[in-house]
Amino acid sequence: MIKTTNPSIPPPRPDFSAIATWIKPNSKVLDLGCGDGSLLRYLQDSRGITGYGVEIDDNNILNCFQNGVNVIQNDLESGLSSFRSESFDYVILSQTLQAVKHTEGIIKEMLRVGKQGIVSFPNFGYWKNRKQVIFGHMPVSETLPYNWFDTPNIHLCTLGDFEALCRLHNAHILERIVMNGDQQITVLPNLMGMLAFYRFELHEK
């Protein structure tokens, strides 16, 4: 994980740190569904990136400005037509994949706009989620904190599901990190991991 000696930078969240390990210094980064801009602000401080966020929520837009993050108000479902192809080194979709309607379209646009894509999502295959399903309930957990009737999540998936999607759309997976809290999981990741991170690029035939 990234470690910094700059005392002005707070200790990173484990998921921020996992993503930062893949970001080269001074890169150009687009964060889709960037929330309050915390990830971009961390990458600006720790990696010196030039960052832009895409967000739709008014309160998050204001928080991005307060965090010193460049943000564009836009609905991801409408696509990324305002961005040129390969205009970013990395396009990030952090814990948002499961909440978008047009999942395939988002992945295609990430591969068009960025040289590499980085996606993180809660792993529906995590054993505690499976246990709740076995006992007749939709999972509620740290990474899936909503009840079935008020959740924004509409496309939950496992590691195997996402990797199959990548193969379908000619996305070559470069690296994968699977975590449970701040611990990296290497044994039975689709069963033991709560949160998955993937770095991928368009596979040239």
Number of helices: 7
Read across the widest sheet, the strand sequence of neighbours is 3-2-1-4-5-8-6-7
Beta content: 15-25%
First-last Cα distance: 33 Å
- State the domain count: 1
CATH superfamily: Vaccinia Virus protein VP39
The main β sheet shows up as: 8 strands, mixed
Ranges where pLDDT stays below 50 over 5 or more residues in a row are 1-7
Mean pLDDT: 91
Residue share in helix: 25-40%
Helix-and-strand structural type: alpha/beta
Oligomer: single chain
At the first level of CATH, the class is Alpha Beta
The third-level CATH topology is Rossmann fold
Structural Rg: 17 Å
The gross shape turns out to be globular
Description:
With 205 residues, this protein is α/β, with parallel strands linked by helices. The chain has helices spanning 14-20, 38-47, 58-66, 103-113, 127-134, 159-168, 189-192; strands spanning 28-32, 50-55, 70-73, 88-94, 114-122, 171-180, 183-184, 195-202. Strands 3-2-1-4-5-8-6-7 form an 8-stranded mixed beta sheet, with helices on both faces. The protein is globular. 37% of the residues are buried.
Structure keywords:
205 residues; alpha/beta; Rossmann fold; eight-stranded mixed sheet; 29% helix
Put the structure in a nutshell.
The chain is an alpha/beta fold and 205 residues long.
Any chance you could write out the topology, listing elements then pairs?
Elements: H1 14-20, E1 28-32, H2 38-47, E2 50-55, H3 58-66, E3 70-73, E4 88-94, H4 103-113, E5 114-122, H5 127-134, H6 159-168, E6 171-180, E7 183-184, H7 189-192, E8 195-202
Parallel strand pairs: 1-2, 1-4, 2-3, 4-5
Antiparallel strand pairs: 5-8, 6-7, 6-8
